[in-house]
User: Fold this.
Amino acid sequence: MISIGLYSTGILLTSRLSDLRIATSAEFIDINFSADGFSLLQGRYYTLNGSVTLSELGELIEQHISRNSEGSIAECTLRVAGGGESATASFRAMYCDRVVTVPDISTWLKENYLTVARFKRAKITDVIRLSWYATTSESVAVTVYTTFLDPDGNRSTYYISMPTGGQKYGSNNVFTTYITVQELVDSIKRGRGYDSLTLQSFTIRCGDRSLTYFVDPSITPAKRFCFLNCFNIVEDIYLVCETTDKVKADRSLATMGRAVQFYDVHNSKEYETETAPLTSFECDLMEQMLLSTQVRLPLGDNADSESDFEAMFPILITDFTSEISDSNSELNTVKFTWQFADSVPRLELPNSKGIFNSVYNPVYS
Assistant:
């Protein structure tokens, strides 16, 4: 008889899948552990006191899922054979590289998006990407509740139902929606007949899930960093910060007679960034960014609205100082050093696009 010590009626987090015990009366067993059809672990294991323990299966699944920035769930199967008997266990695992404190993750998933933040700051040029896990019995309809100032300065509200592409219910999978902030403004203008308004905040709701964004003009000059969070979901954070460029040259000298020249030259450039004070939820996001498996930086004129994670520039956070305090009397800031994954130093060419009218003026050259 072979007994696999896996008890799950729903989805499992990879951080909770550490050691798996297999009880058997056989002298040895052959196992094959696969995820999405890819074999992650296979071999022959000899029993000790009637059992075999497989360790760090969750880490194996995380390494498999992290290859794809668009994935967060794996279909896993464990096949065991030995002593003329066999057994199979199948389960679904969701990427999560943090130990969570909630006892029932299925209830949490019904009430939360795949982010640790409940509040965020956004720009008017932002494109919001939001993901959540929905079961077959759940509606995936998304409604946005906005708060704004009308042309007379009076505060008002307006709600917008977002298109779901014909999908009414979930299918035990991760869903993602994209919301353009400027399109929310345009929808309110059409619905209320306004020529202008000031969007203050908007709350995105899906079932029992809710996440509020505050449109904050103070982050207009902020730099946008994108990263894979603890669920392997693309997330971003706007950082009002000061960045210091540091150019380095690793080179040696070669001497021949009276002539001296450089050889084995390697030039590099790194950036030291110190943030302005962070909100409490931004501190949680900051911690995940510093430890993320992938961090990317959108650049160019459309950096705020870029939604393709693979099209962004990968960066490496090589060092950081993060001392987050829960004191109400202290402002939390973070300092970190990073560089582009491409070792060749980057050069930002001067761009004076659009500063001239039809008559050239040399004053602005």
Q: What stands out?
A: The longest helix spans residues 181-192. DSSP finds four helices and 22 strands in the chain. The first strand starts at residue 2 and ends at 4.
